[in-house]
Design goal:
This protein has 391 residues and is an alpha/beta fold. It is built from 12 helices and 15 strands. The radius of gyration is 20 Å and the shape is globular.
Length: 391
Amino acid sequence: MFLGKVKKAVCAALTASVLALAVAGCGGGASNSDTIRIGANLEMTGTNATFGQSATNGAKLAIKEVNAKGGLLGKQISLVVADNKSEAAEAANAMQKLITQDRVLAVIAPIASSSVIAGAQVNMDGKVLAISPTASNPKVTVDPETGKTRDYLFRAAFIDPFQGSVMANFAAKSLNGKNAALYIDNSSDYAKGLGQFFEETFIKNGGKIVSKEAYLAKDTDFKATLTKIKAANPDILFVPGYYQEVGMIIKQARELGINCAVLGGDGWDSAKLPEIAGNEALNNTYFASHYSPEDNSPAIRTFVDSYKAEYGQVPDSFAALSYDATMMIIEAIKRAGSEDTVKIKDELAKTKEYQAVSGIITLNETHDAVKSAVVIEFKDGKQTFKEKVNP
């Protein structure tokens, strides 16, 4: 049902984009401008607002650093931000505006997989690449109907099969989990994908799925379903959703006496999560992420220090990956040596062993980042580095 809504939204956006493209022309970017414009189609408001705000900060920091060193192709870089309001339909409209009206050379794509997918055809028609910092569903870069890689879609993150497998292996091997319950956001491609891959790997490791339940984004009362989950007596509860609902689920689960380990994915990574769940409730919870600010690598230390100086806070993974995605775009434009959006796309696809903040990134044939993951543990509401997992 959710994907049906996305398709309707895409159709509406595409109708408008075809008309706009007929006037503006496909791709080509802002060749007559005195600045190089990079777009950002992000969740500035709505349920995932902290993600978009962090991602915007990361992109702005990257651009500020490059501009301070003389800019790119003899020009300064400007960031054009469009708020997709954490909604797939708005993401398609925002992508259309950035490409056809703002004439950006490339776009930082939305955080959420469903929102990237909603605008994908706009990128393809406009011949302007989009790279998501974190969208991890395989369908972001590979069209499920044709099985072909989407030429203009990329990501700076690992994909759900890897993330789901990381957490399933962690549950079985590090936590000695035997019986897992899944509680999935059924309105999210991201959550459903993570749930699928966690389940497959957990079973391969000899574990058993004792309960599978679903909720929808913006739900607030989870106690009836959590009571059913409690009756199944799991030693692992996997909740691969976004922080707003996850925080309430963990809080209500602990209130019901569900004290087992709770695991999730990178959608947990928000400073709001401890505020919603409560510090004590988050003990014995873990999630997969792309980097840890506690890592002592030179690249991370430099980034964390610069970000704290600029914004007065420790950067989360959305800030780090958006910084990386922005720098990857800048490097691709530099290698292309022009503002031709097709050449920029081709150069980005060639990214190999790029030393990013979040690790060494190589883009594979499906435009997915091959890189390490980390497992983060909450201790009294604070994120702590648990372990690193290589691909």
